[in-house]
Design a protein that fits this description.
Low-confidence stretches: 1-17
Distance between the termini: 33 Å
Order of helices and strands: EHHEEEHEEHHHHEEEEHHHHHEEHHEHEE
Mean pLDDT: 89
Number of strands: 15
CATH topology of the largest domain: Aminoglycoside 3'-phosphotransferase, Chain: A, domain 2
Structural class: alpha/beta
Number of domains: 3
CATH class of the largest domain: Alpha Beta
Largest sheet: 6 strands, mixed
Helix content: 40-55%
CATH architecture of the largest domain: Alpha-Beta Complex
Radius of gyration: 23 Å
Shape: globular
Strand order of the largest sheet: 1-5-6-4-3-2
């Protein structure tokens, strides 16, 4: 049920109200006729939208604030189509009349990428992960083909079709935001000629359905072992191979080559239950789109990381370059584009992005397991504060909390009733605060604060969350929160 309210519609109100959290909280109170018990910000790595989780009792929803009305309209439209064909996408509960604010279904925080990173530490890319990826690919095929029959692509955000021009946008995005910052020399005309031949050849061939555009494991949430899709507002009409390339060649997921082939074969079998696609042509197009996606991703890392100074993207560059190096060795499909091929070979072996040096003072807060060692400080600063949480009553001893983390309400309630963990956090804050003040005054570039417990799942996670929240509320500095053992990172 979609409800639009006419309250708070004057633009002047929003100009005066700088606090997005307050704006969403006010709407929440009106929409739900109650004040939330808890409201917490959810950091989005590359998005201009603001997300907050609102909790009342056992119910939670996500509040979203965005001033990009056109993008919001596309998201709402796509969501209605996807829901009508039975896809796992969020319900839209309430929308403000001016479309700046809306509330959607909360699927939780179990991103597929987080599960991959967590499972890989103990058992590699196992059968469980393979099954999750297959479920995601099966749902993707349904989204791509079934929904395409119902979508009016003129309602797509910004660009309605991924055509030659769109591919050139991605290639030039790579050139201007990443390649030009590597120091690798190239012939401008020869490279542009290669770009244009490569793009037109891809665009003129093959099937076109709904293209998710950013189909990667950060946009797939796993709930009850089923995939749920988010952030598809950039979708448009385009080649189905592009989405599969985005998922299987996501750098940080680091899917083994044999698994990539198994999953690609599975996808091909699924799509052929709908349409008859020649496998040889499909495979050639797929690997061509892998190169497009890798270059587009490097462009994004250049913009968000090298220019906007977001450390998560800077740290992702070495993963992407290793991905590219392996791709050039195993799938050399760019022989017809000599300048492009030469440039990619040169950047694939660059080592200049290996060091994690922050461009401005940044505080990194870790949770970790002592069994797996204290986190390394890769900034060259030599480390920082390490707090041992193992003296706090451990909910991990009890069966009902073993699958939960220090971010879950049940565990938080346990701590409130059975421990002095909040005093522990306050003492930790009192210890680090003088150092934060001093580092800011002396123009240091990094500080690391780590909380360790037995499994890195409950006590350390709770403490790291509250330390990061304190710093964000009291200092105007970037904060990176890394829950190493549960595979979650936010900035």
């Amino acid at each position: 049920m979609l409800i639009c309210l006419s309250i708070f519609t004057a633009n002047q109100m929003f100009c005066k109200m700088k606090d997005i959290k307050k704006i969403l909280t006010d709407y929440y109170s009106i929409f739900y006729s109650a004040s939330p018990e808890k409201c917490s910000r959810i950091t989005q790595a590359g998005s201009d939208r603001s997300y907050f989780r609102f909790v009342n009792g056992n119910n939670s929803v996500l509040g979203v604030y965005s001033e990009n009305i056109t993008e919001t309209e596309t998201f709402l439209y796509f969501s209605s189509v996807f829901k009508s064909v039975g896809l796992n996408v969020p319900d839209i509960f309430y929308v403000s009349e001016d479309l700046n604010c809306y509330f959607i279904e909360d699927f939780g925080d179990d991103l597929l990428l987080g599960i991959v990173e967590r499972e890989r530490k103990t058992s590699g890319f196992n059968d469980y992960l393979t099954e999750l990826y297959k479920k995601s690919l099966k749902a993707l095929v349904k989204m791509q083909i079934t929904s395409a029959s119902y979508i009016d692509f003129s309602k797509a955000y910004s660009i309605s079709e991924f055509d030659t021009q769109s591919i050139l946008f991605d290639l030039n995005y790579f050139k201007y935001y990443f390649l030009n910052r590597t120091g690798v020399n190239y012939d401008e005309k020869k490279l542009q000629d290669d770009f244009e031949c490569f793009a037109s050849g891809l665009s003129d061939d093959g099937w076109k359905f709904f293209m998710f555009r950013d189909f990667q494991s950060r946009n797939i949430i796993i709930k009850n072992d089923e995939p749920y899709f988010i952030d598809y507002q950039g979708g448009r009409k385009g080649a189905p191979e592009y989405d599969v390339a985005s998922l299987l060649y996501q750098a940080k997921a680091a899917i083994p080559e044999e698994k990539k082939q198994e999953l690609l074969d599975y996808y091909y079998g699924q799509i052929n239950t709908y349409v008859n696609i020649d496998k040889q042509n499909f495979t050639k197009r797929f690997y061509s789109y892998v190169y497009v996606r890798v270059m587009q991703t490097l462009g994004a890392y250049g913009l968000r990381g090298l220019i906007e100074k977001k450390q998560h993207f800077i740290e992702s560059i070495p993963f992407a370059l290793r991905n590219l190096e392996q791709l050039l060795q195993t799938r050399p499909v760019l022989e017809s584009y000599p300048e492009l091929s030469r440039v990619l070979h040169e950047i694939s072996v660059l080592k200049s992005f290996e060091n994690h040096v922050f461009p401005e003072f940044t505080i990194t807060v870790y949770s970790f397991s002592y069994k797996k060692g204290i986190p390394d400080d890769k900034t060259g600063n030599g480390g920082g504060f390490v707090f041992d949480c193992r003296g706090i009553h451990n909910p991990g001893r009890y069966t009902e909390y073993k699958t939960k983390t220090g971010r879950d309400k049940a565990v938080i309630d346990f701590f409130k009733s059975n421990s002095d963990i909040d005093d522990f956090v306050l003492n930790a804050i009192a210890s680090v605060k003088p150092t934060i003040d001093n580092y800011i005054e002396r123009d240091f570039n990094s500080l690391m604060i780590s909380f360790g417990c037995t499994g890195g799942q409950h006590r350390s996670v709770y403490c790291a969350e509250h330390m990061a929240e304190f710093i964000r509320n009291n200092y105007n500095v970037p904060v990176r929160l890394i829950h190493r053992e549960i595979g979650m990172t936010s900035e």
